[in-house]
Amino acid sequence: VKSLNKIMVSLAKAVPGVANAFFILLLVMSIYAIIAVDLFKDFGKGFKFTNIKGKEVELITSRKQEYGFEYFGNFGKSLYTMFQVLTCESWSEAIARPLLHCNSVPEAFGVAFFFVSFIIVNAIVLINVVVAVLLEKMVDDTEKKAEIDEEEEVEEAEVEEIVHTKELFGQLADVDEPMWQAPGSTRKRPSALSISQKDGLNGLSALSASTRVANLRADLDAMKEDMEMIQESL
User: Fold this and answer.
1) How far apart, in whole angstroms, are the C-alpha atoms of residue 122 and residue 85?
2) Euclidean distance between CA atoms 163 and 157, whole angstroms
3) In whole angstroms, what is the distance from residue 118 CA to residue 135 CA?
4) Is 49 helix (H, G, I), strand (E, B) or coil?
5) What letters, b where the CB count within 10 A reaches 16 and e where it falls short, cover 117-150?
6) Based on C-alpha coordinates, what's the Rg of the chain?
């Protein structure tokens, strides 16, 4: 269920990017459809066309219509034909080959370039762009979750450190003040230890991690030196 929820959330977040990719795909298909109407709408007019051998042969669709009119008669028909080419469903035999086997070699090369370029741009490049957008959203969600988890771990570690320091301040606050003025001791009680527990906690929260650790080490070193001097005087 958790993995399914991840997929559904990623799909929902990818909708804007996927919509943009599909819009570009539709735009390119429309450009090709307009060009196809201009080039091929009159092909096979009169139910005949001249083949590569120069012979005039019959050309009629299975619906008893002219080839050019049925596939490229207007923008709507041409756009649907290009969508059929995009799906790779009988596009070569039913749509491209009648145009390819015309009587003109330059026209045949032009037809081949037209359909091959359409397949490369739309069926390979732009369709993969849609998939890339979906994968990008899934990867972004995973990376963001990892960053959030890492930040939470750091925050928990900082909280534990602050709580530990707070307990240390509480223990040191119970030490009698005269002990810090033992004979032979020239050190004053560290100012960081004279503040209240609440002030110490707030002060540590405002410091960066590195500064907080450095201050804590300095206080602990000072405490160690004072305790050694107190023990020597006893």
Assistant:
1) 10
2) 10
3) 24
4) strand
5) ebbebbbeebeebbeebbeebbeeeeeeeeeeee
6) 40
Alpha helices by DSSP H, listed for the chain, are: 2-40, 67-72, 75-86, 91, 97-100, 105-118, 127-173, 197-206, 209-233
Adjacent-strand bridge partners of 51: 102
Check pLDDT > 50 for residue 13.
Answer: yes
The answer to whether 44 and 98 have CB atoms below 8 angstroms apart is yes
Report the pLDDT value the prediction gives residue 193, as an integer from 0 to 100: 44
The pTM of this model reads: 0.59
- Both structure tokens of 78: 């041409």
Phi, psi of 102 (to 5 degrees): -90, -175
Q: At what angle do helices 209-233 and 127-173 cross, to 10 degrees?
A: 20
Structure-block tokens of residue 19? 């919509």
> Is it the case that residue 42 has pLDDT exceeding 60?
yes
Predicted confidence (pLDDT) at residue 194 exceeds the cutoff of 50: no
Would the pLDDT of 189 be above 60?
no
How far is 109 from 119, CA to CA, in rounded Å? 15
Query: Judging by DSSP bridges, how do beta strands 48-50 and 56-58 pair with one another?
Result: antiparallel
